[in-house]
Amino acid sequence: MKLYMHAAACSLSPHIICRELGLDIELVQVDRQTHRTSNGEDYLAINGNGYVPALMLDDGKVLTEGPAIVQFLADSVPEGAALLPEVGNIRRNEVQSYLNFITAELHKPMVLLFNPIYSSVHGEVRALISKRLAWLNGRLAGPYLTGDAFTVADAYLFVCLNWSPWTDIDLKQWPALHGFMARVAARPKVREALQAEDLEAFDADGVYFAPHAYLASSGRTGSPVRP
Q1: Tens digit of each residue's pLDDT (9 = 90 or more) over 26-58
Q2: b/e for 41-58, b at 16 or more Cβ within 10 A?
Q3: Which domain holds residue 152?
Q4: What residues does 210 pair with on adjacent strands?
Q5: Alpha-carbon separation of residue 141 from 19, 56, 58, 160 (angstroms)
Q6: What pTM was estimated for this model as a whole?
Q7: How many CB atoms are located within 10 Å of the residue 104 CB?
């Protein structure tokens, strides 16, 4: 399988899930400006929307949208039930509920904060995100979103919250979420994914990660991730 990705983007979520499940995956970088891939493909011919992630299966079929991809990955192997409970188990629906919440209420609004076109409403967007994070902080059921078990929703949340420093959102005001980030960042397979994407830790707590070029452009100094 091929996973089309940008380093530290939302494609990091299915990348983490592949690592957690021990799936053989080829990472294919996509240039944001040219939409050309690292192996010379026209990415728009693979995903006409132009954004990542996209998962190309061995038979050539392509699946897009991160929440759909991580569910497919979890369902593709028996071990995946640990990351996404089986159909008919209410815990599966709880995980899917969080996937939907993260997509609509965190991922898309946070992306707006990276885009100067929306700078006039960044304050209002940040206030909305803060409201959602406060709710989520109070809902955290244990070490992870639904309790003791790490799921596909936790990987997605980790990736979105990893953008917090770049969007002027201080997670330390929500201790449960800040602790969540530290726990997920310490998982061996998560660290493998971070290293594979050449990400660096740049904060004192070592729970936020970014590409070296991004750090350099922001005047920050990071340290390479090691599994």
Answers
A1: 999 999 999 999 999 999 999 999 999 999 999
A2: bebeebbeeebbbbbbee
A3: 90-218
A4: 200
A5: 24, 34, 37, 19
A6: 0.97
A7: 11
* Cis omega (within 30 of 0) for bond into 53: yes
Q: CB within 8 A of 49, min separation 6: which ones?
A: 64
77: region left, alpha or beta (phi > 0 left; psi from -120 to 50 alpha): beta
Helix (H/G/I), strand (E/B), else coil: 25 = coil
Q: For residues 2 and 208, is the Cβ–Cβ distance under 8 A?
A: no
CA distance 226 to 200: 9
What's the first-to-final CA gap in the chain, in angstroms?
A: 23
Domain contains 226: no
The residue assigned the tokens 């990955």 is 73
Final residue of a structural domain among 82, 107, 134: 82
Find the DSSP H helices in 113-170: 122-139, 152-161
C-alpha 99/C-alpha 110 separation (Å) is 15
Residues 144-179: tens digit of each pLDDT = 999 999 999 999 999 999 999 999 999 999 999 999
Co-location of 140 and 96 in the same domain: yes
